[in-house]
Amino acid sequence: MIPKPTNPIAKLAVMISLLAGSVAHAQRNINAEAANDAAAIESKVDQWDNFPSGRMIQFSGHSWRVKGGGPNQRYGPGGFPFGASDQSVWVDKQGRLHLRVTQIDGVWHSAEVRLTEPLGHGDYRFTTVGRIDDLDPNLVFGLFLWEYQASYDESNARNVANEFDIEFGTWKDPKRAPAQFVCQPWHHKDSLHPYRFSLVGDDVLSTHTFRWLPKRVECRAWRGGPKGEHISDQQLTQWTYAGPNVPGGTPQVHLNFWCIEEPPARATPQEVIIDQFEFVPVKKQAVQRTITQDQ
């Protein structure tokens, strides 16, 4: 047995020593928990398995990985290969991103890029070029948030992938509107907002945007670039989703142009152009006010 010190100074020294030992032990536990959490995230999230080429591009001030590139590999959505070369994905001299559905070695390829980092709550603004209101009926152009997960078993019941979409295309149905905002699962009540519009000219701009907040997603679209947001006669639609499946987590932006299970009906290469992508973060104070207001 260690004798108890009787001197007050000696007692204080023992107490300090015991406290330091406790703090060091607690810090080791915190570090271990952090390492375990990081390992769990690494095992849960698909670490670029769908992006085997490793190709990166720079667009609108961000780094993006290009999907596909593996030999004879097919991916979702649509079940087609995705082209990772500049035949499918490139940025032109004006800084605009091109996604092309085309044949490579006789095989039709879709196209997709993914932002390398999550951006969080804020305004996601996509300005497009051309007739996105008149796409090939077998193709879909998507601008969306998505977070890879280890399992999607409950995807029909809840928003497992923290997905929110802006989608263009009629899904092989000429009666459908050419665009829609969607919170997944799409078949849940009030989770889908189709909108109709018409554009004129190959160089026409339109902007489609959503503001992702903790309790809702606010959506808007208008003709023209970002400066057209407040011009009344340029507005296309607005909609707010505030249901139970508002995305959480840390989803990243994806941009894709893909075949719905078969090649383009027009039987020629098809292309979409994104003029710019802009993200404006919502300040923490504004997020907190939003949470309070929604409670």
How are the SSEs ordered, and which strands pair?
Layout lengths: L7 H37 L11 E4 L2 E5 L22 E3 L5 E8 L2 E3 L1 E5 L6 E8 L9 E8 L17 E5 L10 E5 L8 E4 L9 E8 L4 E7 L11 E7 L10 E8 L10 E12 L2 H11 L1
Antiparallel strand pairs: 1-2, 2-6, 3-4, 4-5, 4-16, 6-15, 7-12, 7-16, 8-9, 8-15, 9-10, 10-11, 12-13, 13-14
Explained architecture:
- The protein is globular.
- A hairpin with a 2-residue loop joins strand 4 and strand 5.
- Strands 1-2-6-15-8-9-10-11 form an 8-stranded antiparallel β-sheet, with no helix packed on it.
- The protein is 16% helix and 34% strand.
- The longest helix is centred in the N-terminal third of the chain and has 37 residues, at 8-44.
- The protein has 2 domains: 1-44; 49-294, Jelly Rolls, CATH 2.60.120.200.
- The chain has 295 residues and is an alpha+beta fold.
- It is built from 2 helices and 16 strands.
- The protein has helices at residues 8-44, 284-294, and strands spanning 56-59, 62-66, 89-91, 97-104, 107-109, 111-115, 122-129, 139-146, 164-168, 179-183, 192-195, 205-212, 217-223, 235-241, 252-259, 270-281.
Give Rg in angstroms: 25 Å
Mean pLDDT: 85
**Which regions are unreliable across 5 or more consecutive residues at pLDDT < 50?**
8-45
Helix-strand pattern: HEEEEEEEEEEEEEEEEH
Overall form: globular
Taken together, the total number of domains comes to 2
DSSP strand content: 25-35%
Could you give a short account of the major beta sheet? 8 strands, antiparallel
Strand order of the largest sheet: 1-2-6-15-8-9-10-11
Number of strands: 16
Structural class: alpha+beta
Keywords: Signal
Organism: Novipirellula herctigrandis
Signal peptide: 1-26
Protein name: GH16 domain-containing protein
